[in-house]
Write a structure and sequence with these properties.
The complex is a heterodimer of chains A (about 475) and B (about 450). Chain A is of the alpha+beta class and about 475 residues long. In chain A, about 45% of the residues lie in helices and about 15% in strands. Chain A has 17 helices and 14 strands. The radius of gyration of chain A is 27 Å and the shape is globular. Chain B has two domains: about 30-235, Cytochrome Bc1 Complex, Chain A, domain 1, CATH 3.30.830; about 260-440, Metalloenzyme, LuxS/M16 peptidase-like (Cytochrome Bc1 Complex, Chain A, domain 1, 2-Layer Sandwich), CATH 3.30.830.10. With about 450 residues, chain B is α+β, with helices and mostly antiparallel strands. The chains are: A alpha+beta (about 475), B alpha+beta (about 450). The interface between A and B is large, with 76 and 83 residues.
Chain lengths: ~475, ~450
């Protein structure tokens, strides 16, 4: 008896102590209102866990549980690289769009009506298919989702409608300066022998036949190259049952692999102008291809370098917007890729500031390549990236992407667990090295869509770059 | 908007407003509401599942509070709120947020200006201090004003003037409102952006940026008690303004007849737009009108898409936009067609659809479909902390009651087929509408 009493006294004492320490930990100390407050302590960030299993046909399934809302999302990624489509460019988009226009025992109208009825958001484009629905419709919506992937009808009438729609879409983009810049980028960054260079035109869309779509689907839509993520209000047993029921009978098969050159050395820097006579701004992209694969040894250095240059509100934004007022926003981006990655800076500015804006972007290029970043500024970038990483974890699809990328790129299993640590290990020298490797200032492309007649005068001050007129 | 590129000022209002409805107790959004002695309303929503926090500050001031000779002023001012304060030097605002690993942004609508930030939750004191600083002692100088004047004009060019159909909405609002300040968009016009002075901005801050005119929301990984203490520490130092804002509501007469206009710009497809006055935010007709818009145009199986595009192949595409604003609403329908010759047929078909919904009851299945779709839009909007923070702030500002976030869904469930027909009949006055022909240049 006495020991028990003693024990409970001890417990009481511990509780009291705890209580006191909670009281004292409240921020009741004097606050200095003239200085930014310091952060409080933060618990270590843990990545939410996911579960994974593989069906007999090779389909890899990932489950990310999230029970906050009665919603379920599905995401299917097919890991293939299509061959060149040449005079049938746009075949991939065409095929996937057509797949949704009737599958198994449902017509297009039935699919549309049922998906809308269940409140499902659905999208399919090339090798990505996405759907999200109220969880009460989890299995019905997955049935349609999987039918579209497995048993598209390829109806002749629907084929003609999709063809017409795609032609309209291409026509609609003709006056859109941002779409024009993107199309020019593809043709300049990659040689004609590379699938990344291809842009669908009215002509190529009209050359596509129904048979081509059937073949495309037959060739690439196989479970053994597919990654399927389920996110939301669901348990593992239910996920297994859903996956097995809907994808268990999906036939596996060999998917052709193509060999492609990995990286293309850009030529001497030039300015490419496409005339858009009624433009009130120059829409610009400064861009080149880079040799950077996901999971590369120096990827974290490259990420830190790119962030410092033009991520968030860093250097480019501070200089061109906050100091000069040339633009509403300017950002740089760095995209790793298994074949050919790319780097770009995007901005829009009025015609009169075009040359000056280019000069300032190159000023920032040269600064990051020649001057070592201060340890203070480097720390700022690291703090920013660390915070952004934890913010990104709020969305369950972040975890799904981590899971799929880990498998696709054969990354170490703790790659994302160690992400913040890896970012924090980047040194000033690493940043300098990455800048010199990924920003070859004499080998990049400056693309401008704008009012040519005024641009030519404005760009006279930039004699060092040759001007190339692009034709529509 | 300060830097968010992809959310368009006006279109976003629709999604934001029809949101915050909740299905049942499980999804109920719990929050604590109180007022500081200076009149600032505070809302706290606790969710400790992830170590992050979203902070929103909504000021009840937008472009409708502007003078006709200073359009774009409220939005221009929003940019200046990032300039600094007595204790935050120019350029430091962004830097402090970056250093904290967070992101901050803002946007201005016809009726409100909203500032938001998301950060790791241990940085909550910082953002609260910063928000209190720019409310208490914002500091702007002529360098800041001149720089942001340029930035705002570039923003207008980038979003509107350099985009195909970029000014279509602006023209529609201009035609639909004759007297009310809704006749111009929050982005305003460059000639008035040029005229705004530093003194006018200081006066604007004194008048509208007061604790009584604001709602502060903190959502995420917090403890209620210590967060209250933090808020007291930073915001109690701000004095009540003591003045009641004199908000005259400008009466807009109903559209009396059909008003039409033809404009020519370099676009690929001719566009035909209709506009009607529509229910204001939160009025009795507001919820049924959301249903009407959903039935007409939300999803592939919606009526306009099925009948005008798929069945009759008259149009390339169509889109609608319902703007439920504080004083009035505006609804517009835009059809893009291959050529102008089909305009007559498009009008006939469009009129038929608008007539049908005001004479025939929708089917049971259609009604259930709308309810499902609206429910999912609600879930989406509450699927993250910044969405919840925004919704709470908006309800508090415009309904005086953030609790609507948990009760509105019942209103949605109660909507009947008769409500839909009645409201459609009231607003789709086919002989009194706005018609805009937005055409490519005439062929030579």
């Amino acid at each position: 008896m006495p020991t028990i009493l003693l024990q409970s006294l001890k417990n009481l004492f511990t509780i009291l102590l705890l209580f006191i320490s909670i009281l004292t930990s409240l921020p009741c100390e004097e606050v200095n209102l003239n200085l930014p407050p310091n952060p409080t302590t933060l618990n270590k960030i843990h990545l939410p866990k996911y579960q994974t299993f593989t069906l007999k046909n090779g389909l890899k399934v990932y489950l990310i549980e999230d029970h906050k809302l009665p919603m379920i999302s599905y995401f299917l990624y097919l890991d293939y690289m299509p061959s060149l489509q040449k005079n049938k460019s746009g075949l991939g988009q065409f095929t996937t769009r057509l797949m949704k226009q009737g599958a198994a025992n449902r017509s297009k109208l039935q699919i549309d009506e049922e998906l809308d009825f269940m409140g499902v958001d659905f999208s399919i484009e090339d090798n990505l298919i996405f759907a999200s629905s109220l969880s009460k419709y989890a299995s019905q919506s997955l049935e349609i989702f999987s039918d579209i992937i497995k048993y598209p009808k390829f109806d002749k009438d629907e084929f003609l409608k999709v063809q017409e729609e795609m032609v309209s879409d291409i026509q609609a983009e003709k006056q859109n300066p941002n779409a024009q810049v993107d199309n020019i980028t593809k043709s300049l960054l990659f040689p004609k022998t590379h699938p990344y260079s291809e842009t669908p035109t009215e002509k190529t869309i009209k050359q596509i036949k129904l048979e081509d779509c059937k073949n495309y689907h037959e060739t690439y839509f196989k479970p053994n190259i597919a990654h399927f993520a389920i996110m939301g209000d669901l348990k593992l047993e239910d996920a297994k049952l859903l996956a097995e029921t809907n994808f268990g009978k999906w036939q596996s098969g060999e998917v052709p692999k193509i060999n492609m050159p990995k990286h293309f050395e850009p030529k001497k820097t030039k300015i490419y102008i496409l005339d858009r006579p009624d433009s009130v701004q120059s829409v610009m992209k400064i861009t080149h291809s880079i040799d950077l694969i996901p999971g590369a040894k120096d990827i974290h250095s490259a990420v830190v370098m790119n962030t410092l240059l033009g991520g968030g509100t860093f250097r480019l934004y501070q200089n061109l917007r906050e100091k000069k007022g040339y633009t509403y926003g300017v950002y740089s981006s760095l995209r790793p890729d298994r074949w050919v990655g790319n780097f770009s800076v995007d901005l829009s500015t009025q015609t009169a500031f075009t040359a000056k804006s280019i000069e300032e972007v190159f000023y920032e290029f040269n600064r990051i390549k020649n001057e070592k970043v201060s340890s203070e500024e480097l720390q700022l970038v690291k703090n920013y990236l660390t915070g952004q990483f934890s913010l990104s974890l709020e969305n369950p699809s972040t975890i799904a992407l981590f899971a799929i990328k880990t498998s696709l790129y054969n990354l170490p299993t703790d790659y994302y667990e160690k992400y913040i640590e890896s970012i924090n290990n980047v040194t000033e020298e690493d940043v300098l090295k990455a800048a010199n490797k990924y920003i070859p200032t004499n080998k990049t492309h400056i693309i401008i869509v704008g009012k040519k007649i005024d641009l030519k005068k404005n760009l006279k001050s930039l004699k060092k770059f040759k001007l190339i007129d692009l034709k529509k | 908007m300060k830097k968010l590129k992809f959310v368009y000022l006006i279109v976003s209002i629709f999604l934001i407003s029809i949101t915050q409805l909740q299905a049942n107790e499980k999804q109920k959004i719990k929050f604590v509401r109180y007022k500081l002695p200076n009149g600032l309303t505070v809302l706290l929503h606790k969710d400790n599942s992830k170590p992050i926090v979203s902070v929103g500050f909504m000021y009840h001031v937008g472009s409708k509070d502007e003078e006709p000779t200073r359009t774009g002023f409220a939005h221009f001012f929003e940019h200046l709120m990032f300039e600094g304060s007595k204790n935050i030097k120019r350029g430091e605002f962004d830097r402090l947020i970056l250093n904290a690993g967070g992101e901050s942004n803002a946007h201005t609508t016809f009726d409100y200006t909203y500032y938001e930030a998301s950060l790791p939750s241990n940085q909550l004191p910082l953002i609260l201090w910063m928000e209190s600083e720019r409310l208490l002692q914002l500091k702007i100088d002529s360098t800041g004003v001149e720089t942001q004047r340029k930035v705002v004009k570039e923003e207008r060019r980038e979003r509107l003037d350099n985009q195909p159909y970029g000014n279509l909405t602006e023209i529609l609002f201009g035609m639909s409102f004759q007297k009310h300040p809704y006749r111009w968009l929050p982005i305003g016009s460059s000639q008035y952006i040029d005229k705004a002075t530093l003194e006018e901005f200081e006066e604007f801050h004194r008048k509208f940026y007061t604790p009584e005119n604001g709602v502060l929301v903190v959502a995420g990984d917090i403890k209620i008690k210590s967060t209250k203490k933090l808020i007291e520490a930073y915001f109690n130092r701000i004095q009540k303004s003591g003045k009641k804002l004199d908000r005259k509501k400008i009466e807009e007469p109903p559209i009396q007849r059909e008003i039409s206009k033809t404009v020519y710009y370099n676009v690929e497809f001719p566009a035909l737009s209709y506009a009607f006055h529509a229910p204001a935010l939160g009025t009795d007709d507001y919820y049924p009108f959301i249903f009407i818009d959903t039935i007409l145009s939300n999803g592939e199986s919606s009526r306009l898409n099925q009948n005008l595009k798929m069945k009759n192949e008259l149009i390339v595409n169509s889109e609608t936009s319902y703007n439920p604003l504080e004083d009035y609403g505006l609804y517009s329908i835009t059809c893009y067609s291959k050529n102008e010759e089909t305009y007559k047929l498009i009008s006939e078909n469009l009129n038929q659809e608008l007539l049908k919904i005001q004479t025939e009851l929708v089917t049971d299945r259609e009604l259930e479909k709308v309810k499902n779709r609206v429910q999912r839009i609600i879930f989406d909007s509450n699927s993250n902390l910044s969405g919840i923070a925004h919704n709470l702030a908006e309800y508090e500002t415009f309904y005086g009651n953030a609790g609507v976030i948990n009760t509105e869904y019942n209103k949605i469930l109660a909507i009947t087929k008769e409500d839909i027909r009645r409201v459609a009949k009231k607003y789709f006055t086919l002989d009194k509408k706005i018609v805009l022909n937005y055409l490519p240049p005439k062929k030579k």
